[in-house]
Task: structure prediction
Amino acid sequence: MPNPLLPIRISDLRLIKGDRPVLGGVDLMIDTPGITVIMGPNGAGKSLLLRCLHGLIKPDQGHITLGQLKVPESRSWQAMVFQQPVLLRRTVLQNLAFAAPELAKSSPQRLLQALDAVNLAELVDQPARMLSGGEQQRLSLARALLSKPALLLLDEATASLDPASVLLIESLLKAQSAQGTKVILVSHDQGQARRMADEVVFISNGQVAEQGPAQEFFTSPETPMAQAYLAGELLF
Result:
């Protein structure tokens, strides 16, 4: 079944903070399934672009369409996981039940299965905010996947997590992608991008500097900025 939110088309997207353009005319089309990793130096606009896609920020100029939908109409098909988990002051299970109340009533076993998938089944009654960082992020991912999103956005979702949590989250993302969900992941971790990406979008100075298949990007980047970034040089 075709993904209803593909292709994603972004045209002349501009965002200004204060008197400084932080997105300076982004033109981008993402039309392939799989996992797209957005990379670039700090301050390039990666996270802001993701928030515009999810409707958390309204750009000052430009257009975004996802399939045949504009951003507000696409929200029910989307889910997003942030770098810092946003959890309620409730138990692990209650956090899932709050996110999916109808499912909690009609099929509570689904919630337990979702927790089992992220290795949290034994912590259902624990206060969510007392979990470790990796456990909290796994709970956030389980909550996001409950809606079976067509588009899953992740903003540095595994930054600073323990290796076991990173491995589990990456495995879940690959499995979700194989089921038809389009995954767009912002990551500063080149190792992770090499493991995960089917496609790379490289952003610099608020614009798309390069886009292409991951293997080509990592073996023969076209732009001097991407070449310097992959070489580990400091970019400003």
Notes: The chain has ten helices and ten strands. Residues 209 and 224 are 10 Å apart (CA to CA). The radius of gyration is 18 Å.
